[in-house]
Design a protein that fits this description.
This is Transcriptional regulator. The protein contains eight helices and nine strands. By secondary structure, it is α+β, with helices and mostly antiparallel strands. The chain has two domains: 181 residues, no CATH class; 59 residues. A nine-stranded antiparallel sheet has the order 4-5-3-2-6-7-1-8-9. The longest helix has 21 residues.
Length: 255
C-alpha cells in the first residue's frame, strides 16, 4: 500500500467555507475518523482556531445545502445530511456528520469509494486554501482513474494535484511518537505537569519540582528544555503541509 495525497486548492470566492479558512490561517480541521461507502459518508472532525472563526464555522455547517464544505469538493445537492457538535470549547469543535450526496459531480471520498471499494482508508486536513485527502492505495491505475474522474468534474475556482508519499505514515491517531523522547526527558515533562508547573498560576516552581525528584535544578531545566523542543518539532511536523512535503513525489497524469 502507498499513500497518495489529493490536494484541492480553492480560489477566493469559489467556496464560502474555504474562504473562511483562507481568511483565518489559524483555523484548521482534520478528520479523527472517516467511513465511506458508495452511498454515504460518516466522519468525525476536529476543528481548531480563533473563537470568532469557529463561530462563523458553526453558522456555515448549520446552513449547508451543498456538499462543498464538510464533505469536500462537489457542488451537488445533499440528499440527506445530519451533524452534531459533540464537543465545544472556545477554540475547538469536534463535529460528527453523516451525508448522502445527490446527482452530480461527487466529492473525493465518494469517487475513491467507487474505484477502491471495500478497504478504503483515508484522512483529510483543511487549512488556508488547501483541502488535502490522504488515501492508501495499492496501485497507480486506481489512482489514475480517481484523478481522471475528479478532474473531469472539477468546478471553476478549484485545482487538483496529487503527490505520492515516500512511505505511509502511521495513521493510528497522532504522529507524536514518544519512543523517540528519552525516558528522563519524558519523566521531567510528566513531573512538571503533575506538579502544576504549566498551570496558571503555577503550583510549583522548577526548584521545588527538582527537589521532589531529587535532581539538580539545572538538570531538570535542561531536560524540560529538550522535551519542550521535541514537542514543538512534533507539533510542527503534524501540521497540514510540513510532514507531507518531506515525503512527497509529484504525480502527473494526463487527462
Amino acid at each position: 500500500m502507498r499513500e497518495f495525497v489529493f490536494t484541492i486548492e480553492y480560489e477566493r470566492g469559489a467556496d464560502q467555507l474555504m474562504d473562511l479558512f483562507t481568511e483565518n490561517p489559524n483555523l484548521q480541521a482534520e478528520t479523527m475518523a472517516i467511513h465511506v461507502t458508495q452511498r454515504s459518508i460518516w466522519r468525525l472532525e476536529r476543528v481548531t482556531g480563533p473563537t470568532t472563526a469557529l463561530e462563523a464555522f458553526d453558522d456555515h455547517i448549520e446552513n449547508t445545502t451543498v456538499c462543498s464544505d464538510i464533505i469536500g469538493m462537489c457542488d451537488a445537492p445533499v440528499v440527506e445530511s445530519d451533524h452534531e457538535v459533540l464537543s465545544r470549547t472556545p477554540n475547538r469543535r469536534i463535529v460528527y456528520s453523516v451525508r448522502t450526496e445527490g446527482n452530480g459531480v461527487h466529492s473525493i471520498p465518494f469517487v475513491a469509494a467507487k474505484h477502491i471499494g471495500d478497504g478504503l482508508l483515508m484522512q483529510s486536513k483543511r487549512r488556508a486554501n488547501k483541502y488535502q485527502w490522504s488515501l492508501l492505495v495499492d496501485d497507480d491505475d486506481t489512482v489514475r482513474d480517481i484523478y481522471e474522474e475528479l478532474t473531469n468534474g472539477l468546478r471553476d475556482g478549484l485545482s487538483l494535484s496529487i503527490q505520492r508519499l515516500s512511505e505511509p505514515r502511521c495513521w493510528i491517531k497522532s504522529n507524536f511518537r514518544t519512543d523517540s523522547l528519552p525516558a528522563e526527558q519524558k519523566a521531567a515533562l510528566e513531573a512538571a505537569v503533575a506538579y502544576g508547573y504549566y498551570e496558571t498560576p503555577r503550583r510549583n516552581s522548577l526548584k521545588e519540582i527538582a527537589s521532589a525528584m531529587d535532581i539538580p535544578n539545572s538538570t531538570l531545566q535542561y531536560r524540560l528544555n529538550r522535551a519542550e523542543a521535541w514537542l514543538v518539532k512534533q507539533f510542527i511536523s503534524n501540521t497540514l503541509t510540513t510532514d507531507t512535503e518531506k515525503r512527497t513525489k509529484q504525480v502527473e497524469f494526463k487527462v
